[in-house]
Amino acid sequence: MTESDDRLLRDDRLRLFSFTTAEKRADYLQVLRAFDKARAGYVVLLHAGDVAALTAKDSDSAVTLTAAEVGPLLEQLHSWGVLERSYDGTRAANLAEYRNRHYVYQFAQTGYQAFRAIEDVLAARIEDAALSRLVLPELLADLDDLAKANREADADAVYRKLSRLDAALSELATRAAHFYLSLGDLVRTTEVTPESFLAHKDALLSHMREFSLDLARYAPKLAAAIEAVEATGVDRLFQRAAESDERVLLTVAERRDDWQARWAGLSNWFVTAESELSESDRLREGTMSAIAAVLALLRRVTESRKGGVSRESALRHLAGWFAAAPSDEAAHALFGAVYGLGRPRHLALEHPDAELVPVSQSWWDAPPVEISRTLAETGRAPSPGAPGRIQRNDAGIRRLRAAQLEAQRSRAAAAAALAAGGVHDRVLDEEETEVLLGLLNAALTARVPVSGRTRPSTGSEHGVKLTLRPHERSTVIRTARGLLHLDGLEVTVR
Predict the structure, then answer these.
(1) CA atoms of 238 and 461, how far apart (whole Å)
(2) Between β-strands 457-461 and 464-470, what pairing exists: parallel, antiparallel or unpaired?
(3) Cβ contact 336:344 at 8 Å
(4) Higher-confidence residue: 376 or 262?
(5) Is-contact 150 143, C-beta < 8 A?
(6) Do the Cβ atoms of 253 and 185 come closer than 8 Å?
(7) Which residues contact 159 (CB under 8 A, 6 or more apart)?
(8) In Å, what is the CA distance from 309 to each residue of 243, 302, 305, 403?
(9) Per-residue model confidence as pLDDT tens digits over 211-248
(10) Angle between helices 201-231 and 135-151 (to 10 degrees)
(11) According to a count of CB atoms within 10 Å of the terminal CB, is the N or C end of the chain lower?
(12) Is 379 helix (H, G, I), strand (E, B) or coil?
């Protein structure tokens, strides 16, 4: 799937929630609840009249929708992708009704999931957040049964136990995340009512301590149970679970990969890696941090009750003083006394000549000291400031680099031509002459006389090697710049 296809699929999924922000969102939700109620009674397809009848029986609804009002709602839900529409000709009693095309509607698969997500959010209760402590022994028992079922090659039992383990672990993670989210909201609250917090602080601390102790006690046992299951053969375990899995729209290989990924997630929860903490260790550390946060909140609440003065009461008293001020001048004076924003700044500076004006001398008697404007206005000492921005000529750099690369390519081509054609019986062009002179310079520089004789020397560039050897005759090379005479030297290029 390409990136554009993925973006289109995501946009289509987000459109499923459009009914939650529409003007008639309450009517849309009432219609969808009618479909959900019919679904519970194994009725899938509904006509507009059926939906109106179901909404009329809903005792929780304050408004009853008619079939004429339900029709546009169904069409809009169909356009958003929440409902699917099909034609039902059996409802036509005559030709006119047949031509009016009676439609029946049902939940789309993704539309039903979007509706259930909204219902879960609406039905969520913050006070129900709790850590699932009792699921730990159930996980241990299911792991033991899973190892036994895999040893006995009972594929159906393996599938059932893996499904139970996956569901139980997902519930544990969800409930833990919900609990700590609710606890974070409680701890971050700026105005805590002492009565409401002290009423349940003992139960809260006891609940977290018990969960932390149980997690510490069961984590090693669960890790050992996971290793025992893996000792029975995880490949056979995944294959048996995939064969008994009832998701017929997936191939056996896809189901096997899915169960393998789920088992890896389960193993990471309780088996500690070499350099990382397991999820259970992180959960235990999070629990201990939460206990410390609750105790700090308890200390704050207790101190506020003991002292009788809180930030709220202090601000209320200050507001009363401002309201009772007899005049604006008195209010300004109160403001200056409370906040002190109008007082002058005192700068601790020394005179440049400490012997002339000692530090112990009073400001009244000492001469004034020059200060910078930045220090007087902001209270901060002047600084050199940020370094100036470097002016970069990127276009010029690119042009020079392009010219350099072109010169290198031209020199390499000339070197290749010089190596292929040699230096004799032809006239060297300008580029070949440049390469030859460079090679001669390197070769002549390397020549070292030994006992009155000069041994052969070489120079190489771009894969071309030039060799100079002493010779009886001189070498003459014709170039674009004229004739090059090399007295007593033989030139070889390869």
Answers:
(1) 63
(2) antiparallel
(3) no
(4) 262
(5) no
(6) no
(7) 240, 241, 244, 245
(8) 68, 12, 8, 78
(9) 778 878 888 888 888 889 888 888 888 888 888 888 87
(10) 10
(11) N
(12) coil
